[in-house]
Amino acid sequence: MRKFNLGTSDLEVSTVGLGCMRMANKSVDEAIAIIQAALDSNINFFDHADIYGDGKSEIIFGEAIKRMKIDRSDIIIQSKCGINKVDGTFDFSKEHILKSVDEILERLQMDYLDVLLLHRPDALVEPEEVAEAFKILKDSGKVKYFGVSNQSSMMIDLLQRSVEDKLIVNQMQFSLMHSPLVDYGMNVNMATNPGIDRSQGMIEYARLNNITIQAWSPFYAGFFEAVFVDNDDYPEVNVALQLLADKYNVSKEAIAVAWIDRHPANIQTIVGSMNPDRIKRISKVSNVSLSRKEWYDLYKAAGNILL
Ligand SMILES: NC(=O)c1ccc[n+]([C@@H]2O[C@H](COP(=O)([O-])OP(=O)(O)OC[C@H]3O[C@@H](n4cnc5c(N)ncnc54)[C@H](OP(=O)(O)O)[C@@H]3O)[C@@H](O)[C@H]2O)c1
Q1: pLDDT confidence band for 307 (50 / 70 / 90)
Q2: Phi, psi angles (nearest 5°) of residue 237
Q3: Helix, coil or strand: residue 79
Q4: What is the domain count for the chain?
Q5: All residues at 6 or more sequence positions from 90 whose CB lies less than 8 Å from its CB, including other chains
């Protein structure tokens, strides 16, 4: 499994990370098998959020790691906060951030997070407050690095004006069937839907500023509309995936991840499978090196038009 440094940090992460959003309805024994499959596949990165399963995903994961007697320093753990489910708001207030991290660490039974992300942009954000919260978390050793999720480049600039630490991650939805991050770049100045830049040049901004983009829901079309792999509603892209799966002797899932991995921005793919066999199949992405033509063939099979 390819590894690279997350943003400008010293965290050496696997190119595939395991997203634990769907761990809440697994037993601890099942979670142990899932985590073991990830570790056996050289996946060393685990993504959480305080809202996954209303905190249950973190509880199950924490218990599993404890029972597996895994050395904390052998794995990299990220969680997110900023969605306040109690009062139904997005909340980047200092008080909410600090309280959320204490609760996350308690659920995980751990004393630090490698990375904390702000989950969804808070329209009422006060960057100075975020900066104060991050400084307290850093100084107390509770969080090593910080980042964001679903933010535009200007939102990051706004935060970064006050936040001392460099933000190292922006986690965004990105897949073969949901690709606005790259679509606009091939349609600059066109009066078409793909030409709409929804993130203010996030891919280029991330490359210029050494921010790692993490791709969430890599197998989904639309916003949780449908998993496109092995789905008869998406025949063209599945034919193209199968062709390359046969060529590289891997599964279609591995090719779908290889399409993300081929982008030179060093995007980390956060997969959400809770199936140990599928996780092992996905990790075979290491055996794939897509050519430029193969990347574009998949992009076109996903319904995109190149002029
Ligand atoms: N920052 C954000 O706003 C945000 C939003 C959403 C998610 N996330 C993060 O991203 C992670 C991944 O998201 P996700 O779980 O939606 O992504 P995903 O990896 O695209 O989807 C995984 C789901 O698809 C199912 N699936 C069914 N057939 C599949 C196939 N042929 N290939 C692959 N998967 C198949 C999996 O089932 P099996 O379990 O049976 O494999 C699993 O339930 C989450 O766990 C979370 O950590 C972040």
Answers
A1: confident
A2: -70, -30
A3: strand
A4: 1
A5: 82, 83, 84, 119, 120, 121, 122, 123, 124
User: What's the rounded Cα separation, in Å, for the pair 117 and 79?
Assistant: 6
Tally of residues, the chain: 307
Whether 227 is covered by a domain: the verdict is yes
Distance (Å) from CA 236 to ligand 1 centroid: 21
- % of the chain surpassing 70 pLDDT: 100
Using alpha carbons only, how large is the chain's radius of gyration in Å? 19
Residue 26 lies in a domain: yes
For atom 36 of ligand 1, which residue has the closest CA? Answer: 273
pLDDT tens for residues 130-180? 999 999 999 999 999 999 999 999 999 999 999 999 999 999 999 999 999
Inform me whether the pLDDT recorded for 300 exceeds 80: yes
In a 3-state reduction of DSSP, which class is residue 48?
Answer: coil
Per-residue confidence (pLDDT) for residue 270, from 0 to 100: 98
Query: Is the predicted pLDDT of residue 114 greater than 90, yes or no?
Result: yes
* pLDDT tens column, 179-199: 999 999 999 999 999 999 999
Answer yes or no: are the C-beta atoms of 81 and 105 closer than 8 Å: no
**Would residue 307 count as lying in a domain?**
no
Based on the residue annotation, tell me whether 52 is a catalytic residue of this protein. yes
Mutate to test the pocket of ligand 1, among 261, 273, 285 (most ligand atoms within 8 A of CB): 273
Per the listing, tokens 């891919």 go with 203
Report yes or no: 13 and 74 within 8 Å, Cβ to Cβ.
Answer: no
**217 within some domain:** yes
**Token pair for 212:** 């790692």
**How far is CA 70 from its chain centroid?**
23
Q: How far apart are CA 176 and CA 237, in angstroms?
A: 9
